Amino acid sequence: MSEMPTVQPNPRIDLKVNAADGNATREMRQTTYSGRLHFGDTSQGPRSTMVSEFNGLIPLPDSFSYRSEETGEAVVTIDLWTVNTRGYTFTSGYEATFVEDSRRPGTAWLHIGMQIACDAGSVVGYRIVALAGIGAIASG
Known about the structure:
Elements lengths: L5 E4 L3 E9 L2 E15 L8 E13 L5 E3 H4 L3 E10 L4 E12 L6 E14 L2 E11 L3 E3 L1
C-alpha cells in the first residue's frame, strides 16, 4: 500500500486579477499553492536502498474550500520538480484536481493526484495555480 507523503506547504498567495473574457475582462481570483512533498522518512536524506511508491490523491492542507458549481469553469495548473533525491524519481502522471468534500456537500478542495516511485527520503516540490470566479471560494 502506498504511504501518504508528508505535505509541507508554503504560504499561499491569493490575488484578484482581471482575466480576458471575449472582448471584455472580468475579475477573478488567482490562488497559488506551493510547497514540498516528503516521501518516506526524510530525516536522513534520500536512501537508494529503499523505495517509496505512491499512487493516489494528496489533499492540500491549505486549500480554500471552493463552491462545487464554480469549479467547472476554474483553470488549474500544476508544476512538479525534484528537490532532493539520491538516485531516481519516476513520475508517470500527476494533476491538480478538485475533490468533493463529503462533510460539506456542494464544496470541493484541491488535491494533487499523482503516481510516483522514488528513493525513500526524496522531496518533490509543487506549485499549483487556481484561477476561479471571484465568488468561487466558499471558505478558507
